[in-house]
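Checklist before submission:
- one chain only
- standard amino acids only
- sequence pasted in full

Submission:
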Amino acid sequence: MLTVRLETLGLKAGDWVLDLGCGEGRHVHGVHMIPGVNVVGLDLDIPSLVKARDGLDHLPPVAAEGATSFLSGDAYRLPFADDAFDVVICSEVLEHLHEYDRALAEIRRVLKPGGRFVPTVPRAWPERICWALAPGKDGYADQPGGHVRIFHEPDLRKSISALGFSYRGKHYAHALHSPYWWLKCAFWDRRDDHPLVKLYHRFLVWDLMDRPALTRVLEAIANPLAGKSVALYFRKAPA
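Returned file contents:
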């Protein structure tokens, strides 16, 4: 379930990609499948890194396979040299960071001049519904490691552009997941076992595993209206 459209990044053999906050590795796995491209997945959560690494064993073989590695690290202090990466992906991470501007500065530091940066964050209006349906202490926005802010696209674009990045475009993704999170928030006290939540989860698993034409068409139509996430594409200024 990739949020970033890897095919738009122009990746070629020999490139180095950083997936910052890689979680269980969905974007790392996607980049791994591109021949000759090297990728590093970095995350603070060790169990997620283990799952990401183990997930490589379930991928089909790749001709001219690039290097793929995983590393535990902090977005505020990236353990890499300046200008180390051709592309940095930061998917569904910035909304968890109290000082996201520090992470953006680190991303800029490790990205080569002319390199590409793709952050994805929850879209503002579907996210606001989640906050409203499960408010207060122990609610949706009061979870360990949870979301600490709602990003508005113009503000985030301005913050990133101010660091010397040029904006190149955007797209919305995962519209079929918006109702799932609204249901979970509406039935917050039973979000793991409520019948409606479980039924919709089965629908999402069917969509993910079988990729039927019906849901592909539905999501393509719904993404501009109700996409759960927005992906923003930037290029760092040349040297």
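Reviewer check: The first strand starts at residue 16 and ends at 20.
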